[in-house]
Design brief:
With 209 residues, this protein is α/β, with parallel strands linked by helices. Strands 1, 2, 3, 4, 5, 6, 7 and 8 form an eight-stranded mixed beta sheet that branches. Helix 1 packs across helix 4.
Length: 209
Amino acid sequence: MLNKQGFDLWADGYDKTVEVSEENGVYPFAGYRAILNTIFNEIMEKKNARVLDIGFGTGVLTSKLYENGHYIDGIDFSERMIALAQPKMPKANLIEWNIANGLPEEIKGKQYEYIVSTYALHHLTDEEKGSFIKKLMLLLTEGGKILIGDIAFETRQQLEDCKNDSKEFWDDDEFYFVFEDFCSLLGDCCKMQFVSMSHCGGVMEIAKK
């Protein structure tokens, strides 16, 4: 798994890496544009929404939301990613922070209509993801939603099939979403839906019960 320095070094070529993987329909970024478009279209149903983006990277999704009048807070642990994203949305509140340490003080107590995360939470273990998502739930307005676009699967078998088909590229240091597992982990406290966008990616929607 890349550390902060690794992501700083990767930042300038990140979007190109995603594009090549997405265009060829291969792990890990197959379905990338469909995933981002699904999240964008969902948020665009509201005007001037307050949005928190966890791991916004170069701002591909967030900058489009910003351009359409939404209020953006963002967290990313790569200084270089922030440097690339900030000029695209100069009035956005972008915070350098490692989510492995929980949530930064700057956003505790705030409320958001949408909390989004794309291709970031797979760096946390399932237990860490569950704990982190519960903290995010406290930041949602009534009727608010968490929208997670990531390397994700409906079942554990689908993950194993993808792993076998992608052995040459598979990253064993990352922890991918399996929807059936997260229903068991968070189903008592959340409403959850999952829409698959490719053989290795999809969008998970989480809301308060």
